[in-house]
Amino acid sequence: MKFSSKVLKCGLSPMRKFHPYAVAAEAKGRKIYHLNIGQPDIETPKAFFDAIKNFDLPVLEYAPSPGIPELIHAIQGYYAKLDMHFDEGDILITNGGSEALQITMNCILDNDDEILIPEPFYPNYYTMVYTCGAKIRPIPTSPEEGYRYADRARIEPLINEHTRAIMCTNPGNPTGTVLTPEEMRLMVDIAKEHDLFIIGDEAYREFIYAGEPLQSLGEFEDAAENVIVIDTVSKRFSACGARIGCMISRNKELMAEAMKYAQCRLSVPTLDQVAAAAMYSVGPEYFAAVRDEYKRRRDTVVRKLKEIPGVVCECPKGAFYLMAALPVDDADKFQQWLLEEFEDNGDTELLPGSLVDRSHLEEANMKVLDSTKLRVEDGGDTGLAIGSLVEADELEEINQRIRVSGGSPAIARDLKPASVKRVLLGITRASLATDSFLSAASFQETNRVLTEAAIKGKIDPLIGLKENVILGKMIPAGTGMHRYKDIDIRENYGF
How many Å apart are CA 490 and CA 370, to the nearest integer? Predict the structure, then answer.
């Protein structure tokens, strides 16, 4: 069977391709933290579910192809509060921001066309562009420059007769970069001068941590024919499963073309639109609380990552992603290793991947199981750092004081023992996996073993055979064992 060249150019989503490995790991009882996908754990506003409960029409009909009026008016009101004013016809409701992007790409890109996108970018852009027969021309960025790209000298040499648009993801996914008003003005000017569309993927506009509000592309009314804004409730209201987004543009001709695709897929789910419209009634305090929570998490992650030797990361200014350069040769292989082979050291002092004998494992786990301390998972308003250890009685006392003052208490858990798997060592690893650095050094990798021992200040207990032979000491075997060391042997003729 023959498949289209467009689909063959597409790859699997890098966010989802390791999902089968995660499922297999969870089946083995391992705890998996799904950092591969932007699924917030913040509670969806109650208004969403209340709207569904109160929906009492006898027939769940097709919605109008552009979207239900209630939702369009709610979005108009949201932007009006930000001093951006759109007509009803400027807003097209879509199945999430993804469909808004797909419709946009299909409207503006043809075979062999190009779109400029700052790199690194949301990987699904590849599929959206390739299925149009077009291709991405990346705008290179670097962590040392904060992933910034609004620079004529960097962008204009990439523009050619095939260029049709510039993608401006602001705040950046996955970089967290937030463009300044001056940089936004520059991007719009470049698009106008070269007669290009400029697409603003603004799914994370509410999550800015520097204090200054985001300047939207929708504010540039002088570029009405060029600007396309992509929006969604997925991240803003933590309602990813609702699949409600929208395409916004004052370009009437473009929106008329987009309607062809909207009518082809008939409509966006009616019930989800009704519930999404209700969420726009939440006040600014909702977003303020969510921003505070994400900022607290961001600061914790950045601080802990920078404590790891070899890790390089830029503190994101917006969104809720973080780009980090890890000291690994292949990120895909590293991720697969984590899911298939990595063993949890729990809350012991054992290092993940280290080789230990059974007695050491049992000793380490008993220390954890006998401990009365708890590990903090959420400090709330207590000031306790995530990951810190605290006595159970002390935690209860702290939480009681916080509750009285109306704050959020800390959440903690019991300490976990280490989980391991049995390993049959080959001769090399078996010889190196010993408590005696002298014994290990005598086999191979002598320089590495001795250097490590010197740096760590290791002490050799001299309880094995090889290390005592090396030093010319009595072998601890048979009568050479310590228990026989002080035996006094005398001749006895009394038999």
Answer: 49
